[in-house]
Automatic annotation (TrEMBL):
Enzyme class: transferase
Function noted in UniProt: Functions as an E3 ubiquitin ligase.
Catalyses which reaction(s): S-ubiquitinyl-[E2 ubiquitin-conjugating enzyme]-L-cysteine + [acceptor protein]-L-lysine = [E2 ubiquitin-conjugating enzyme]-L-cysteine + N(6)-ubiquitinyl-[acceptor protein]-L-lysine
Species whose genome carries this gene: Glycine soja
Chain ranges of the U-box domain: 7-81
Protein name in UniProt: U-box domain-containing protein
Pathway: Protein modification; protein ubiquitination
Entry EC no(s): 2.3.2.27
Amino acid sequence: MNESQNAIPHLFRCPISLDLFEDPVTLCTGQTYDRSNIEKWLAQGNLTCPVTMQKLHDPSIVPNHTLRHLIDQWLQLDPQFDPANPEASTIESLASLKLNLESYESSLENKLQALRKISVLSDEYCSFNKSCFLQLDFLPLLLELVFGTQVSPENDMNFIELALCCIKKLLPLGSLEPLNMIKDGSKLATFVLLFEKGTNSVKTSLCRVIESASSSSSETEDLCSTLGKTNELVHEIVQVVNQNYEVSGDAIKAMSALCSLQSNRESLVRGGAIEEIMRYITSSERRNMAPVAMRIVEKLMGLRSAKEALVNHPNGVQTLVNMVFRVSDQKCSESAVEVLLTVCGEFERAREEAIESGVLTRLLLLLQSQCSNTTKSKARMLLKLLRS
């Protein structure tokens, strides 16, 4: 299948010709074909469905109005699309959209419409579309529009939300070096402001940007460090974990990303990461990201301040004890044992609280489970420490 065929969404292509549907019709088998193609197939005496090869107990065809409507909507989003030359149509369309976004004379509504079209096109992850987005430098443009001076966060939140959604889709396509523009003072301030005042969609997209910044050790390491040392931003991310259920999972991922740099860990502790993660794990409704959250705590245990924050938390040690033996979540059990071994080795108070919370029984149960040999070894070390 060549790249020009890939420019058409898969569901919009006739399985016989692989071209864009002109008049989609459906057989009794549920398969849809272009009318001219399936009529030719049937006229040749074929009494089976071309895709499933099932025998047709009813050779009648029914117009697929729903699919036809979807194709019409898609064509309206990209009016320059020419089925005869989809590659040229895509280039022309994207170039036009870019000019629209760059123009100071273009209205906000026109820019919003352009972003909607970009979002649709970026959903088609064919190699040709990817090449177009990269060659036309869409990522730097969108980043400048969101974090630059052309948009007011207070007045144009719909624009920012859509632009960030497009940025999120484009991040996996190429180099992340353009993200480094966020290090600039005014753009960094806008990043923080958007996290404070933005919608859930905006906060989710910003968390994804933070994740991406940490995933490229060479290109964006300085950016990850800058974000992690921005106390206002770290505080906002940490607070979202328990204040906003819809964004909490993305906030946990963003914290984990920032935690990948040793230099960021102290600011996470100061921002209340230990306290909020303990609250998150305790909440029965929000444990889906508990393994990642526990891994963050495990990484932070290299800091004296993090250990003290955990031991001083009213339910810190007890929460860890409750995580020691979890049949459905071995990763949490492994992290809990590791963290308890660390704090119990330094704080007598932690040892006393762990024993009072029933950690000995849980450790014995853990040793009889199917956990890893490494976890069992650490569990035995913790038992020896507590019994002494």
